Amino acid sequence: MESAENTESIAPAATPQFSYRLLPELVDTGSDVTLAGTLALSQFNRGALQIRLSDGVSYNLNLSNTGTGVLLSGTAHAEALTDCTRCSEEAKISLQAEVESYFIIDQRYHDIAEEDDTAIIVGRDGKVDLVEPIVAGLVLEVPFTVLCKDDCAGLCSRCYANLNIEECTCIEEPDPDHPFAALLALLDDEGNLREAPEEGSTQEMVT
Ligand SMILES: [Zn+2]
Ligand SMILES: [Zn+2]
């Protein structure tokens, strides 16, 4: 695994360019090239969720001419920060992605491209963009639920207090179907029994 000794600064929120010229190097069947390094990508999105990368993406890719086109395969790894699904605080995730794509490099193979809409036909300049397949692989690895810690207590649904760092005083909403719902209705907000009207002469204790 290549080390990420690359210390070049990562431009904030800019998508770096990473294209590779397949032609003429990979024009012959069986020819291949290995690319390893770090892509200075600082963020990407999975839907509305922003994934922030402090050290970019380390990649190890292989481009290989299979006869009808060039197969891209390999792996990408990134340490990322995003928002906890429950409490919105920062959550760490480690992404280890498979990268795969297929590039048709010859006009004669248009028929194949029509059958396989995942194939990308290489343009006249012979270059292909490698950022998109890397990001596509990483997006698939972002878990549906991202937690800052396994037992994240989340936010109070009423006052939005972060229950990991504070307790709130919200009383749980009584369930109207609960067998004791009628009894709960006899209690005031502080949990004391409401005074019956005929006992109105009794003074309420006020501290
Ligand atoms: Zn959390
Ligand atoms: Zn609360």
Helical residues, percent: 10-25%
**Binned strand content:** 25-35%
What is the H/E string? EEEEEEEHEEHH
Question: How many beta-strand runs?
Answer: 9
Overview of this structure, please?
By secondary structure, this protein is mainly β. It has a domain at 19-141. Helix content is 10%, strand content 31%. The protein has helices at residues 110-115, 131-141, 181-184, and strands spanning 19-21, 32-39, 43-46, 49-53, 57-65, 70-83, 90-104, 119-121, 127-129. Strands 2, 3, 4, 5, 6, 7 and 8 form a 7-stranded mixed beta sheet that branches. Strands 1-9 form a two-stranded antiparallel sheet. The longest helix is centred in the middle third of the chain and has 11 residues, at 131-141. Mean pLDDT is 82; it is low at 1-12. Residues 84, 86-87, 89, 147-148, 152 line the site of one zinc ion.
Keywords:
10% helix; single chain; binds zinc ion; seven-stranded mixed beta sheet; disordered N terminus; 207 residues
Short description:
This protein has helices at 110-115, 131-141, 181-184; strands at 19-21, 32-39, 43-46, 49-53, 57-65, 70-83, 90-104, 119-121, 127-129.
